[in-house]
Amino acid sequence: MKEGVVNSAFVSNENLQLHRDDEQKPHEKAHEEEFSEGPCGWSGFTPSCLQCCNNAKGFVFFFGLLAIVQSAVVNGFFSTIISTIEKRYKLNSFQSGIIASSYDVSSCVLSLVIPFCGERGHKPRWMAFSAFMLGLGSFICSLPHYTSGLYVYGTNESDTVPATNRSEDSCSTSSLSALSNYFYVFILGHLIMGVGGTSIYTLGIAHIDISVPSEKSSLYTGVGYMMTILGVAFGYIVSGQLLNIYVDVDQLQDVALSPEDPRWVGGWWIGYLIGLPAAWLLIVPFLGFPKHLPGMLCKLVTPVCRE
C-alpha cells in the first residue's frame, strides 16, 4: 500500500524525527562520512595516551619538525656545501645552479597537481608521503660519496685535482668526466625532494587552516612558517660544522691537511645522511593522524567555532 503524506499533527516528535532521518538525502550522509573525525592511532591500535596529540597543536608540532627537516636539507645544507661539491666532483657554477633550481622546477610543476589530487584526500598521509620523498631524495644526494671512491688530493697546495686522476702534467679527461656525471645524481635527488616539499606547503598548510578556529588560523600557520626559517638557520650551522670533518672520515688519521688548506674537502654528505632518518621517523606520527582532526566539523557547520 502506498504511503501518504505524513501529517506532523498526528505523529509524535520522536516518530517525526525518525521519518526525517529516513528522508535524509544520500549525498548528505556521504558528506557527513567524508568529514567524520577519528581517533589518533594506526589501524585498530588507538591507545588513549596518543589522543593528547589528536588536535591541531599536535599536528602543527610534527608539521613544524617536518618543515625544519625540509628547509635544513634543501636550503641550509646545500647552500653551505655547494662549493665543496663543485670541488669534489669537478662541477662548474652553471651545473651547481641547475642542481639548486631542480628542486624549484619539481615544486613548480607539481604545485597544481598535488593540491588537486590531495584536496579531498587524507592530508596527514600526504605529509607522510612528503617525509618519505624528502628522506629518499636526501639519501640519493649522499650516494655519490659511497660510489666515487676515496678523495685523493694533489701534492701542491693549489692543486685540488685528486692525484689518482692525474698524469704528470694534466688530469685524465675520462676520470674527470666520470666525476662530473654525478651531476645527474644530485639533480635526481633534488627533484625527488621537490616532490615531497610541494605537499608540505600546499596540503599541510591547508589542513592546518581548516582544522583550527578561524581566529587562530594565522597563528598556527605562522608557527609552521617560523619552523621553516629555523630549519634554514639550523642547516647553515650544522653543515658549517660538518665541513670541518674530512670527507672520508675513516681516513682522517692518514690526511695531513687542515680545513684551511685549499685541497681540503669536508664532510658534505653527512648532512644528507642525517636528513634520511630525520625525515623517515616523521612518517610514523603522520600516519597516526585521522583524516580530520576533532573540531573540524564544528568549524564547517558554524561560522565561528571556539575550542
Structural notes for this entry:
With 307 residues, the chain is an all-alpha fold. It is 62% helix and 0% strand. It has twelve helices and no strands. It has helices at residues 13-22, 26-34, 56-89, 93-110, 113-118, 123-147, 173-180, 183-211, 217-242, 269-280, 283-288, 296-301. It is elongated. It starts with 12 loop residues before the first helix and ends in a 6-residue tail after the last helix.
Helix content: 55-70%
Rounded radius of gyration (Å): 27 Å
Largest sheet: none
**Total beta strand runs:** 0
Transmembrane segments: 59-82, 94-114, 126-146, 182-203, 223-247, 267-289
Pfam families: OATP (PF03137)
Membrane topology: Multi-pass membrane protein
Protein name: Solute carrier organic anion transporter family member 4C1-like
List keywords for this structure.
single chain; 307 residues; mainly alpha; 62% helix; 0% strand; transmembrane; membrane; MFS_dom
Question: Which helices and strands appear, and what pairs or packs with what?
Answer:
Elements: H1 13-22, H2 26-34, H3 56-89, H4 93-110, H5 113-118, H6 123-147, H7 173-180, H8 183-211, H9 217-242, H10 269-280, H11 283-288, H12 296-301
Helix pairs in contact: 3-4, 3-6, 3-8, 3-9, 3-10, 4-8, 6-8, 6-10, 8-9
